[in-house]
Amino acid sequence: MQQQPSPQALTGVRVLDLSRVLAGPWCTQTLADLGADVIKIERPGSGDDTRAWGPPYLKDADGQDTSEAAYFLGANRNKRSLAVDLSRAEGQAIVRRLAGQVDVLVENFKVGDLARYGLDAQTLLAEHPGLVICSITGFGQTGPYAERAGYDYAVQGMGGLMSVTGERDDLPGGGPQKVGVAVADLFTGMYATVAILAALRHRDATGQGQVIDMALFDTQLAMLANLGSNYLCSGKAPGRMGNAHQNIVPYQVFEASDGHLILAVGNDRQFAKFCEIAGQPGWAADPRFATNAERVRHRAALVPMLEDVIRQRPRNEWLAALEAAKVPCGSINSIGEALADPQAQARGAVVPMAHPLTPDLRLIASPMKLSATPVAYRHAPPLLGQHSDELLREAGCSEEEITVWRQRGVIA
């Protein structure tokens, strides 16, 4: 007997995805991974902007580049694509029909833009009071910057993240630095997911839908976490610390005799263990270094001493000794090394999926490990308009309507 697939937590939830690029698609991919049926609305001919954000591109079975950018593939699995022209009245009618058949609508249009198509939140909620609408913008629906376009890079700067990222200003290479991935987008996508799940719970209990107003800028401010709290408590804005930690010492990168390693001492007991391994047990008893608070105050004295002793031994020797003593540490891997790491392999960090253009697509797996309702990889990231006919039939459209719309360029 064939084993039935495990149920998924969001099976039965339908999502209309009018978003593009990263924050919105990251949110809807997460919902899709959890079992939601996500309908991705795209512009005929071009689709989501990230379809063209390459190279690199997916390679076909012959090793040749396709038109599918790796960027797009990383944020759009488990979705179905409907290519429809929202500038056309027929296209607007199609999306309004779909809005009445879903639980959630996610969009990242500029403030006010969807009103032109009769798809603004006020109109849709009047017609469908149980709908959950999540709007993702750079600066939110209110405030003096509401009408500005919002991009992750600019928000990292405006929201304070680049003021605490990068090497210290007094060292070579010092100055503002963005994070290597679009963290404001990604965090906004994740916060949006949480908000949508909360709104669905409320809708299921009361029948009432609502509007979720998500902004990259708001999220970036929230992401400041302990550093934002540091400022509010002290009145002093934290500066850039390179690879060091604002509140913990030693907690940074050090150079061994043959490479770099991370030492992440989190408490005084771990520091004492490190000192034993380093052959310097007296450091742990020194009043300047005995507690984390004193180590932070005397960072300038302690760190050069640590640098001198750590560079005397090879990296792997340090890592083995520190791991055996349960002192937090780590290597600094390339992305390839990280994905090839035995732990990544054991956790299934890379998943294969059959794509229409190649049987050998590999994607980074979802990190969510649910025992009863596991993530499932049902659909490869779709080709543009791959599911247009299928989705329109499911929405109750006739074959004649579909044919006419395609002839007129309303759908693709």
Automatic annotation (TrEMBL):
Give this protein's Gene Ontology molecular function annotations.
Answer: CoA-transferase activity
Domain of life, per lineage: Bacteria
What are the entry keywords? Transferase
InterPro entries from the UniProt entry: CoA-transferase_III_domain (IPR050483), CoA-Trfase_fam_III (IPR003673), CoA-Trfase_III_dom3_sf (IPR044855), CoA-Trfase_III_dom_1_sf (IPR023606)
Signal peptide residue numbers: none
Work out whether the entry's keyword set contains Phosphoprotein. Answer: no
Q: What is this protein called?
A: CoA transferase
Organism (species): Roseateles puraquae
